[in-house]
Amino acid sequence: MTAAKLEIPEAIVSALGDWVQRAAEEAGAGPREALARSESALDATRGELADVSAARDAAQAQAAARDEEIEQLMAELRNARSIATDALVGKAKDQLAIEGKDAQLADLRAQIERNVAAQAAASDARLAAEMELVGAVTARDNYAAEIKELRARLANRQG
After folding, report:
1. How far apart are CA 64 and CA 9, in angstroms?
2. Taking CA atoms, which of 20, 25, 53, 126 is between 20 and 30 Å from 111?
3. What share of the chain is helix, strand, coil (3-state, %, to 5)?
4. How many Å apart are CA 36 and CA 34, to the nearest integer?
């Protein structure tokens, strides 16, 4: 006895092919949507990273400018102290040579007190500038930590 050869009609084969293709497309729709969402999130994260990088660069530039300004102020302060000291010593010698000792000492004491007060004010200004620099450096470090965290999250999302 021979087995009868079973032939499937073309319409059924075509319908089955269409059904398989639709099932494959429907099965891939979810992953395609997830991929599109992931790409969108990645683009948004890249934009945030660019913004944070720009902010970090601006903070670093500002910190560098303040460093230069502080160094310049320190040099000017040293120069001013040297000039003031030389002027005070020279003036004191001249006055001691010319005027009476009591009046000269009282005047010299008043000048030194004014000089000390002026130096204290300059020192306070320098300290305030240094504190601003510390704040800028702290902000820069915070931005750097945020960037590192964003990069880690981006790497986790990509991986």
Report:
1. 81
2. 126
3. 90, 0, 10
4. 5
Residues 6+ apart with CB under 8 A from 125: 73
7 φ, ψ to 5°? Answer: -110, 135
Closest to 71 in 3D by CA, of 9, 29, 129: 129
Q: What is the distance between the terminal CA atoms of the chain, rounded to a whole angstrom?
A: 61
Spatial separation of the C-alpha atoms in residues 119 and 58, rounded to whole Å: 33
- Structure tokens that stand for 132 in this block: 């601003």
